[in-house]
Amino acid sequence: MRIVYCTDSVCILGGVEIVTIVKANALAKIAGNEVWIVVADAQSAPIRPLEGIHLVDLGVNYYTDYYGLKGFYKKQRLHKVHLEKLLNEIKPDVVVATGQNERNLLPLLQLPSKPLLIREMHFEKHYRQKKKKKSMLQKIFLWLSEQLDYLWRIKGYDYIVVLTEEDKEQNWKGWNNVLVMPNPITSVCDVKSTCEAKTAIAVGRLVEQKDFASLIRIWGKVTEKHPDWRLEIWGKGELEAALRQQIEESGLEGKVCLMGYTAEVLQKMSQASLYLLTSMFEGFGLVLIEAMSVGLPLVSYMCPTGPKTIIEDGQNGYLVAVGDEKTFAERVCQLIEDEPLRKQMGQAGLKESEKYRIEDIAQRWMQLFRDLLAKKSSRRNSR
User: Fold this and answer.
1) Which of 107, 143, 293, 382 has the greatest CB tally within 10 Å of its CB?
2) Helix or strand or coil: residue 122?
3) Where are the domains of the chain?
């Protein structure tokens, strides 16, 4: 089977990029498959090794020589021409869009081979509306972006794949071509947490979506009862200076530590005893699966979408209403004060994480591709 993944880049450190590489590598190992990753921007080496993958850089470079809206649409036209030419040379069986810049282009391409077109949704459908809008112009722009995406271009795809049943049920009612496939665990760590260290951990980009400001306030409450525990936040991002200032003004230096970027996320998790997530929204919350895979209990905001799918409240962690910082702190304190409960929840999560192994997810994707191609062929032959 000839499979093409189209995405923005595999050089930028992000969840979509890592998941795309991991899935493509796994599919390339299956006999009879040939896999491509087609990117618009490849300014440096891929963030993960590519194993048996054809990497094609279209050289559009959205992130350089960018001159506003006019420049963006000029690059979109260039992207369309190059992508259409390449796909007509490859003649793939399946084309999967995982990025942002190609998502509205693929349904417009003239592809005589009629490949199966799949759009992967790595964010909850209405994620744009979850952002804190700062002006009327931004509100209008986000609304127009959503209308363009969901009322027009997305209908050109054969199938849309979302990450959770929650997203499908809440946001895609009436759509008969929406399917569910979770993300896989993207790394493996043989070392598991003992849940005995006096450390909690959170991982993610330091951006508005992750709401680490809320987590810092929560930890201020936790510290009042448990000053010997500390919180490590691993990641980089545009809000780093603001978060450092918040930590200093809250008197939490040494209690909350911004650790910076690490490529050894699972190893860092295995040295902690709790995983905490305060995101405003997620597409899936892969980091929760990764934390479970090293035996950590979880405390998470019940944001759309993902945490409700991953966490069984009271079994492998706790779910808390978004913004309820008091209850969140109480749940953290409960786990700090009850080591047997921490370990019990950690082991429950470890067992649950096994169903997200990349080998199993890759086989599920292959079966899905086969079924959808057979269905498309049957429809074509019946005309």
Assistant:
1) 293
2) coil
3) 2-184+357-382, 199-356
Q: Write down the pTM of the prediction.
A: 0.84
Handedness of CA 263, 312, 273, 257 (dihedral sign): positive
Tokens of 350: 């470890």
The CATH number of 2-184+357-382, from 3.40.50.2000, 3.40.1280.10, 3.20.20.150, 3.40.190.10, is 3.40.50.2000
Alpha helix segments (H runs only) across 131-171: 136-151, 165-171
Average pLDDT per run of 10 along the chain, which is 383 residues long?
A: 94 85 97 96 86 94 67 86 97 94 88 95 62 65 64 79 90 88 92 97 94 98 98 96 97 97 94 97 90 98 92 97 98 98 98 95 97 86 67
- The first and second tokens of residue 224, run together, are 């009042």
Q: 76: burial class by Cβ within 10 Å (0-12, 13-18, 19+)? A: middle
Q: Which CATH class is domain 199-356?
A: alpha beta
Q: Measured between alpha carbons, how far is 210 from 207 in angstroms, rounded to an integer?
A: 6
Which of 255, 278, 259, 248 has the alpha carbon at shortest distance from 198?
255
Report CA 94 to chain centroid distance, whole Å: 22
User: Which residues, including other chains, have CB under 8 Å from residue 228's CB and lie 6 or more apart?
Assistant: 198
Q: Can you read off the two tokens belonging to residue 243?
A: 């978060």
What element of type H or E holds 180?
A: strand 178-180
Identical fold, 2-184+357-382 and 199-356: yes
Give the bridge partners for 383, in sequence order.
Answer: none
